[in-house]
Amino acid sequence: MAAVKLTPAEEEAIIKQRYLTQMTVPKGNLPLKVLTKKFLQLLEQLDKGPEAEAEVARLHREFLREAAQTELHTKKLRAICEANTREQESYTRKQQELEAAIEQTKRDIEEKKLELQRAKVLLGQNQQYEVLRHQIMEHPSREVTQQAIDAELQLMAEAKSEGARVAQLMERRRKQFSLLFYVIEELQRTADTTAEELAGRDGMEVDE
């Protein structure tokens, strides 16, 4: 997990609070222990009676001084705890802000991925469009193509008309040749019949 980054003002406030609440306590000589020791010494001198009045006064002053120091120490400890609590809250707030920023960044990344995918699709479509456009530009225009088609249709119509005319002519020629062949056959049969009749007459004349 990434470290929380504090602002310069927040860092300065934390350092100042730590400096103000800092105190030095000798090892093994804690304020509460010292205060308890002074209190027991004071009670011991009070039991001795009037002859220990001066010592009692001295111990009383020391006890009050230690009590004041202990109270000050307690206040400083409380201030330290409060400062630590505020520092922890600040870290927690910064951590929450950082986590929220990370989540927002993740969402932004996912959104950018979708935008990139859409851009890739659009780019592919544009490339296909350019290919089709170049292919279309390489071919004749619709007007030129239509003119060529009309010319071909005209040629086909003329060829069809010519074919029909030739077919009609061939049909007439076929009929004419059929009639001619029929006439020739009739003439041939007539000639054959005439020749036979002439031959028969010649035979009869010879017999007579």
Automatic annotation (TrEMBL):
UniProt entry tagged with the keyword Chloroplast: no
Q: Name one GO biological process term.
A: mRNA processing
Q: Which UniProt keywords apply?
A: Coiled coil, Nucleus
Task: Give its localization.
Answer: Nucleus
Any idea what this protein is called? THO complex subunit 7
User: Cellular component per GO?
Assistant: THO complex part of transcription export complex
Instruction: Show the Pfam families listed in the entry.
Output: THOC7
Recorded coiled-coil stretches = 84-122
